[in-house]
Amino acid sequence: MEGTVFAPALEGIKHVKSEKEVMLTKPFLDACKHILPVIEKFGAAMALVKSDIGGNITRLENKYLSNPTKYTNLYSMVQEEVEAKTAKGSSSCTNGLLWLTRAMDFLVELFRNLLEHGDWAMSQACSDSYSETLKKYHGWLVSEFKFFGGNEAFSR
What we know:
This protein has helices at about 5-15, 25-35, 35-40, 45-65, 75-85, 95-115, 120-135, 140-145. It has eight helices and no strands. About 60% of the residues lie in helices and about 0% in strands. By secondary structure, the protein is mainly alpha-helical.
């Protein structure tokens, strides 16, 4: 995938773990940031996804920048919040990391669907990806809402 919009993200993924297999905060966030221009290629239809991912990256990055030595690895942020009993809060870094990884799972499934089902409309690829990854975490209102259906921006 050299020379594609995916190349920077794929290169960045190689550096997210330390020699001891610990997830490093800055390389992880940098790799996630490389996905934003890819999402942007999909246009306004994916603006919500891009905004959500960008917001969670910013939340984690701000925490990291507050003390880069202390937060070298992602586990240190989560551990601190668990010990402080703030991990379950909607504005916690733990929650941001959880939703960031869920969004990345959605994107991986979307890209897989687009690759494996070239005959599918974008709306079908998105709906299937959503059902497979995110639907179980959303309430009934979001689940019942036609998340991507009928959106002309997704037509091929």
